[in-house]
């Protein structure tokens, strides 16, 4: 059977969501497609794009799902790996769908797989990959659809990949020192929900969120520079999106071309994630 699932962008709330605060995430129109056929003998996986580190975790996840082997799996993905766009969640949901899981059973099994990639994942990525819509997400609570911001979103790529599992653990290890910052992120996400349809106010909150993620120690000089680049090119706001340590920055704007041109002249890869119309 063949199935697919989408990637995601975290608008705000990453890391704090692990500690039961809310986060808001949006679907991306980029997909991972998985085809599973019954096989005879050991599991075979045909894929591209996975880095050595992710490949080991992918093999572990698929061994978990197919303990007896006997399957031939083909994975094709439009999502880059390890940059905070939800590639492992899209894979986890797509492969569970491809073996016929649905509803709560799909969510539960996909989260088990995602935990192999991410350690103790919040489930946010899985929720968006499975639902394909913008969500207000609190661990263990019913999912709440939210409106998409009525402006464009540009993604700027730092060109390096962070390791979500390592970053989530590094925050956990320093939780006592970081608790106030995590609380501040939670409060900021509540404030963001109230202004989702007002790009100016939302943008300011996103830039503030980046500052708080910096305080958590999950940003990098390259990500900070991309935030500055986007703001310098007129963005309403910009922040790292995902676990950090590399990966991408998102920028809200009504003039995506301006940001894309600035990025191109700085030699930064950037693309329009949502047109906003
Ligand atoms: O998968 P990423 O890199 O987009 O980040 C996941 C977001 C975290 O909040 C850091 C972890 C989680 O499980 O929610």
Lay out the secondary structure.
Elements (H helix, E strand, L loop, with lengths): L1 E11 L10 E16 L5 E3 L5 H14 L5 E7 L9 H12 L4 H16 L5 H8 L3 E3 L6 E2 L6 E6 L6 H10 L1 H20 L4 H18 L4 H12 L4 E5 L6 E6 L2 H10 L3 E6 L3
Parallel strand pairs: 3-4
Antiparallel strand pairs: 1-2, 2-4, 2-5, 5-6, 7-9, 7-10, 8-9
Helix pairs in contact: 1-3, 2-3, 2-4, 6-7
Bound molecules: (3R)-3-hydroxy-3-methyl-5-(phosphonooxy)pentanoic acid.
Describe the model.
This protein is of the alpha+beta class. It has two domains: about 1-145, Ribosomal Protein S5, domain 2 (2-Layer Sandwich), CATH 3.30.230.10; about 150-275, Alpha-Beta Plaits (2-Layer Sandwich). It has helices at about 50-65, 85-100, 105-120, 125-130, 165-175, 175-195, 200-215, 220-230, 255-265; strands at about 1-10, 25-40, 45, 70-75, 135, 145, 150-155, 235-240, 250-255, 270-275. Strands 1, 2, 3, 4, 5 and 6 form a six-stranded mixed sheet that branches. Strands 8-9-7-10 form a four-stranded antiparallel sheet. A hairpin with a 6-residue loop joins strand 5 and strand 6. Helix 1 packs antiparallel against helix 3 and helix 6 runs antiparallel to helix 7 (about 200-215).
The set of bound ligands, ions and cofactors reads: (3R)-3-hydroxy-3-methyl-5-(phosphonooxy)pentanoic acid
What's the structural domain tally?
2
Mean pLDDT: 93
Give the SSE order as H and E letters: EEEHEHHHEEEHHHHEEHE
Proportion of beta-strand residues: 15-25%
């Amino acid at each position: 059977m063949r199935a697919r699932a989408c990637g995601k962008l975290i608008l705000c709330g990453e890391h704090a969501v692990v500690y039961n605060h809310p986060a808001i995430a949006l679907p991306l129109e980029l997909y991972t497609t998985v085809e599973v056929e019954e096989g005879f003998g050991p599991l075979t996986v045909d894929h591209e794009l996975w880095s050595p580190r992710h490949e080991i975790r992918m093999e572990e996840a698929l061994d978990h799902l197919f303990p007896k082997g006997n399957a031939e799996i083909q994975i094709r993905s439009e999502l880059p790996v390890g940059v905070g766009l939800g590639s492992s969640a899209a894979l986890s949901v797509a492969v569970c769908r491809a073996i016929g899981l649905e509803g709560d059973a799909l969510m539960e099994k996909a989260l088990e797989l995602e935990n192999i990639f991410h350690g103790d994942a919040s489930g946010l990525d899985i929720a968006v990959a499975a639902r394909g819509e913008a969500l207000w997400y609190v661990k263990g609570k019913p999912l709440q659809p939210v409106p998409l911001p009525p402006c464009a979103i540009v993604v700027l790529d730092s060109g390096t990949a962070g390791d979500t599992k390592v970053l989530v653990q590094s925050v956990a290890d320093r939780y006592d020192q970081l608790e106030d910052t995590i609380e501040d992120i939670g409060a900021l996400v509540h404030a963001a929900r109230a202004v989702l349809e007002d790009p100016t106010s939302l943008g300011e909150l996103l830039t503030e969120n980046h500052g708080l993620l910096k305080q958590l120690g999950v940003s990098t000089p390259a990500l900070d520079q991309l935030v500055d680049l986007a703001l310098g090119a007129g963005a309403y706001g910009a922040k790292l999106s995902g676990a950090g340590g590399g990966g991408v920055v998102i920028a809200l704007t009504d003039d995506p071309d301006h940001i894309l041109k600035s990025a191109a002249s700085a030699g930064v890869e950037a693309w329009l994630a949502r047109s906003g119309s």
